[in-house]
Batch of 2 targets.
Target 1
Amino acid sequence: MKNLSDINVIKSVMGRHGVTFNKGLGQNFLVDPAVCPAMAEEAGLDKNTCAIEIGPGVGVLTAELAKRAGKVLSFEVDNRLLPVLDETLAEFDNVEIINQDVMKADLKGIIEEKCKGMDIAVCANLPYYITSPIIMLLLESKLPIKSITVMVQKEAADRLCADVGSRDGGAVTVAVNYYAESEMLFYVPKESFLPPPKVNSEVIQLTVRKEPPVKVADEEKFFKVVKAAFSQRRKTAENSISAGLGIPKSTVAEALEKANLEKTVRAEKLTMDDFATLAEIL
Ligand code: SAM
């Protein structure tokens, strides 16, 4: 098997198929040989697991997933990479490349059809321009996913894995925490990629919860309140929620009081329970 983290191998296989790096698609390929085996190990795969990958590139992580999982479904939007992947993954008969934009694909239908009866684990080096949308799509679509082990930009990792109620927290932190438990796994410097991006990375793992940590009667309303609260970070939660939801400040002030919260509290200080209580009252 070819060493797909070797710069010369990557350049030669891409050159043979006339493929150049597309920056717009976040094509920074891993060249540190230790990273993909470590990610695939952390993903906890076995022969009854269907691994879902987003963006195989030249297949460096795909191959590690294929060695460990029963099946690999890998979504790649760039059709120029298909003949490359045909060549680099030729020895695996448990890999299916799906030439679709993951954001537009019928994930539920595809997974139900192709991974019937299997556990589902997502493992990917995500294209950074759509990190949070992909993660939210995976979590919100309530697919039968056990865990999501992904490489993301370091700053995104800090936000995704922050504690709710801490300075690094944001709307996405609350959303991730609602659906999953998050953990930082390991740091990956920018030199580990070809071409090197401007930012460093981190591999994180989200273990999908069976039940959310708070009881929420109306999820849509809960997330609307969360988004509104963080919409103007420098302002108080009272001001941002009022502006974000288009309701009078006095209504929000009343809700804060009923929830036993200070009038001047900021969104980053609110806990999951606080958001759930506010959504209920509002
Ligand atoms: N897995 C490879 C690696 O680690 O070297 C490549 C990772 S690269 C950071 C991101 C990959 O995602 C690229 O192959 C890119 O073409 C693909 N990609 C970008 N946007 C996508 C989308 N919307 N749907 C599916 N794949 C996408």
Target 2
Amino acid sequence: MVREQIEARGIKDRGVLEVLRNTPRHQFVPSELQAHAYEDRPLPIGYGQTISQPYIVALMTEMLDVDRDMNVLEIGTGSGYQAAVLSPLVRKLYTIEIVPELARSAQTILERLGYRNVTVKHGDGYLGWPEASPFDRIMLTAAPPEIPPALVDQLKPGGKMVAPVGGTEYQQLVVLEKRADGSVRVRATVPVSFVPMVRGTKR
Ligand code: SAH
């Protein structure tokens, strides 16, 4: 998977490639799809959601440009696979999932596999995680129509966010950088197709 789908498409970061080699993707997909876990495509994980294509996980992880001392937030835990990929590359990973069943199953599998620096929360990613902020990095794996302002607020000066931003079917993968003075620079990169980031209902 790593050689043919990821290195061949230009992902070079040694740390990212090594983590992808070591992360058991089959543990994060429904049992009836385990035989397909290392194929070059997203897979359904239930509740109308998907685990992203391995190459897109690698690309977004490389773009996020993380370090071992960073405090990181992910929006859209889904299966927990992207969280598992980020875990060894950062100090602490917080991840938020709006579907309670997915939050619970991701937490179970991440605990079982020993990812001790990951904390999963059931909640609405539009609100971020104020108690755990500020973050050095934020990654969205569900697509909002616009970058949620609360997430920009929770990013440290010098921080970066990687997010699919746009319509319900297709989006641009965007890299946002927050400068020391708090101003932001937004750069669109490649077209992608993520599930929409939905609005939480008041509970
Ligand atoms: N990162 C995941 C893939 C996520 S698919 C993985 O590695 O498997 C996108 C996920 O975002 C879905 O599970 C969806 O339920 C979740 N999501 C959608 N809107 C959300 C919101 N407002 N807050 C948190 N999670 C959300």
